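thought: fold this chain, then report.
action: predict
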Amino acid sequence: MQYLRTGSRIPIELPVVIRWTDADGKAKQAQGKTASISSNGVLMSVPVKVAPGTPITIAVNLPVEFTRSPVQLVCQARVLRHTARVPGMRAVIDSYELRPIRKRS
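observation:
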């Protein structure tokens, strides 16, 4: 399957958390940094290799300087491939939502 880039990539480095379920059904999580984000995908530097095709959840806190209030981008995505240029992976976004970040008391 070939994926063609349809949107502009925004080079931005932000902390990212990915979550997925391994082949044994165990919940997994890893942290890293984004390298770029587009309307349909994310390039991330993460210290794990997740099999292509694996569904993942991506969570990125967006900078308040851009959003004016604390917002988290949460994406349902699939791993496309691992890259050599940026040690990490590319993922295609299937759906996303912006969630307000509530301050903890």
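thought: worth noting. Residues 10-100 form a domain with the Thrombin, subunit H fold (CATH 2.40.10.220).
final: tokens above.
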